[in-house]
Amino acid sequence: MNEDDAVTNGEDTAASDLDLSLEELEFKNYCEANDFDCDEAAMEEDDRKDFVKIKKRFIKAIREKRAVVDGKKVIYTVSENSPEGMAGTKITISRPNGRTLLAMDGYKDTMQQTKLAAYMAALCRIPRNDIQKITGLDKKDHQFIQDIAILFLTE
Description:
Shape: globular
Largest sheet: 3 strands, antiparallel
């Protein structure tokens, strides 16, 4: 096996990590800590495209100092584009637990966006009756939390 094979087989990740920016490394570490499959080469085309979009937004949020990875969770600072009272607020996005999965119960099958918003709120440990704290966020902030929710829902 040559050196290139070792890298593609994951045997020399330290060498390949040297080519990553700090933000990319943070994203990779977050994915690995949460058991997300981040091997783009092994993904089907549509899945890879979606994953790359999520990765780009995540890396941008880190560069803009809106997202800080803390092991298995992310501390996200809501942008100034969100409503007053939420702008500047720090939201901790945690791994799902039983409450997170139950958050989607009780909604009709036609209420997919509401189910997703409830799941996102639960990831942020926001009570179900405060779901407007998620749904009222600016698109940029909402999208970041939604991206993490999708990573968990598709793992």
